[in-house]
Amino acid sequence: MNVFIVHAHPEPKSFCSALCWSATEILRAQGHEVLVSDLHADGFKPVADAADFGTRQNPDYLVYALEQRQAYAQGSLAPDIQAEIGKLLWCDLLILNFPLYWFAPPALLKGWIDRVLISGLAYGGKRFYDQGGLAGKRAMLSLTLGGQAHLFDGPESVHGPLEDMLRPLQRGTLAYTGLAVLPPFVAWHVPYLSPAAREQLLQDHRHHLLSLDRRSPLKLAPRLADFDERLRPR
Amino acid sequence: MNVFIVHAHPEPKSFCSALCWSATEILRAQGHEVLVSDLHADGFKPVADAADFGTRQNPDYLVYALEQRQAYAQGSLAPDIQAEIGKLLWCDLLILNFPLYWFAPPALLKGWIDRVLISGLAYGGKRFYDQGGLAGKRAMLSLTLGGQAHLFDGPESVHGPLEDMLRPLQRGTLAYTGLAVLPPFVAWHVPYLSPAAREQLLQDHRHHLLSLDRRSPLKLAPRLADFDERLRPR
């Protein structure tokens, strides 16, 4: 299996960074190929703008998704985007590894999503959800957060279920492009871990990665066959 | 009323940018003061990293939220963050004006959130939701998207309710900091508008802004008084 880890944490010695490198080792030891994009180390550009296109279909008015489609077809996307797309197409499993900031990915990772999951490849027209451009591949979140699990353990908890907060990411992004989304690995309460709890969490992470093939994808999005031409429920 | 608009669209001639400048005019004509941060025009830095702090409490290991708290107390935050915080503290109403990318704010706006809504001011410890650091102020989303309203008009629609996709932003970010969140202005199907539909949408926007004072905040988050010391439901 080819695994592509997109990692976004500003501290190389953080627990979140440890998860990234530990996943790399564990998966390679299983015989998988692993590529990592370490977005902070790479100085990845997060802002989607006109500079992402070598030539423009319409130089006077930027419609980002239209230019993506055109530039991808012509091979004139910015080289850093092309390189990320190459890794995305190569992989069987995409892992997004990040600290949860404001119940969402950090801006740097959001920028990878905005710029790399391009229209015309990852989605476009009625190619989304089970018809998405990346169908056949799998994806998984690996995230760290400061809160404890009981703040998210059901509808009565103070923040409600974590999966509800992850909806734009797991459903609106990963499942939207056709990726089969495996259950996330969630590291709770990370800034406050004792050394023993940290070690246990690394073991849990190892177990999570080694059991991926026995896990079913989450049911996040409907089948488009259940909707009519105008995308109304049949 | 002091209004602070944070705007993030890469095309100055876009409908989204028109909403920003039109809101500025409409609100000023009502006698309000308006400040705009045009994040693309300003070249705003979206990535939260070590460069955001003039001095570091711990130069060897970056815990971003801890350094935010310390740097804010010492006045050693990066000048661009300080400037945005100044506008945030000045305002009575914060408007986030942006195109919805992947059912979420663009990376550039997410970066404004990651860097400007600092720990120690906007939130911290048990200061969140109704106890959040920005309580007493109001906020509102103003967003454009390509999809049509019927794709989001209830639980059976293909994407489910828009408010579910906006949960990390409206509840997890704005309401988290104590802001009272007014109903969003949503401009549907924007890339496909006829000139007449565009004009109607600008009128709807005007009406939305002029009726803000008659609108009740959304009920997004619980009261912390309903939770115990460990944040379990009482």
Automatic annotation (TrEMBL), chains A, B:
InterPro entries assigned to the protein according to its UniProt record, in alphabetical order: Flavodoxin_fold, Flavoprotein-like_sf, NAD(P)H_dehydrogenase_qn
Top-level taxon of the source organism: Bacteria
Keyword NAD included in the entry's annotation: no
GO cellular component assignments: cytosol
Transmembrane domains' residue ranges: none
GO molecular function: NAD(P)H dehydrogenase (quinone) activity
Keyword terms, alphabetized: Oxidoreductase
Domain Flavodoxin-like fold: 1-208
Family the entry assigns: Belongs to the NAD(P)H dehydrogenase (quinone) family.
Full protein name: NAD(P)H-dependent oxidoreductase
Organism name: Aquariibacter albus
Upper lineage: Bacteria, Pseudomonadati, Pseudomonadota, Betaproteobacteria, Burkholderiales
